[in-house]
Amino acid sequence: MLLAFFVPSIALSRVGRARKRALDTVAKGGARDAWQVAANGGIAALAAVAWAQRPYVAEAAAFAGALAAANADTWATEIGTLARRPPRSILTFRRLETGLSGGVSLPGTLAEIAGALWIGLVALAGALLAYRFMVAPYLTPDPGPLAPLLLAVPAGGVAGATVDSLLGATVQELRWCPVCERACESDPHACGTPTTLHRGVRGVSNDVVNVLATLAGAAVAFALA
Prior knowledge:
- This protein has one domain (about 1-15, about 35-170, about 200-225).
- It contains seven helices and five strands, in the order ααααββααβββα.
- It has helices at about 1-15, 15-20, 35-55, 55-80, 105-135, 150-170, 205-225, and strands at about 90, 105, 175, 180-185, 195-200.
- The strands form two sheets. The chain has a three-stranded antiparallel sheet, with no helix packed on it.
- Helix 3 runs antiparallel to helix 4 and helix 5 (about 105-135) runs antiparallel to helix 6 (about 150-170).
């Protein structure tokens, strides 16, 4: 599951790297730091611990749903920033600068759905393999209860990524660089100038939004499974 998340994400991050590096609107760029890893994987890790204590399909779905939300958001961002047309706000449909949170585009949305489906398929395949080699040799129960993973995990992924966009358009910090006279998500801006809060709730960074989005993905997948 982790390889299914990291390998394609790393590959997509290398596509159009020069254009992505030129964006100075986003809070962070380049390799993920510890906070980003914790924000994207912390909920999945907690769900894995819960599954270890109670190994049922719903707990497994929560783990995969959190990963699906992170993966869907990652694919949407990596592909969406390469779209020819600028994104639009998920709330007002006004055009936004490429890279700002809360924006959606057709390529990004399709990539989001594909990313959620990918984790859903891998989760189901992994569950079937585990059933085949760990359960079937000893018991012969119906593997049918594993089927909800195919719906629950992608649904959790899309739900989580949608929550990410909604929070990014509302409560996430949007800052303003007075020198460049443009919105951004970092303090200081890429030019080195300190920025001021333009919109959102102080302290609600992209990492905080990622935690809440993966939590939503886990919750939706758990409920559906």
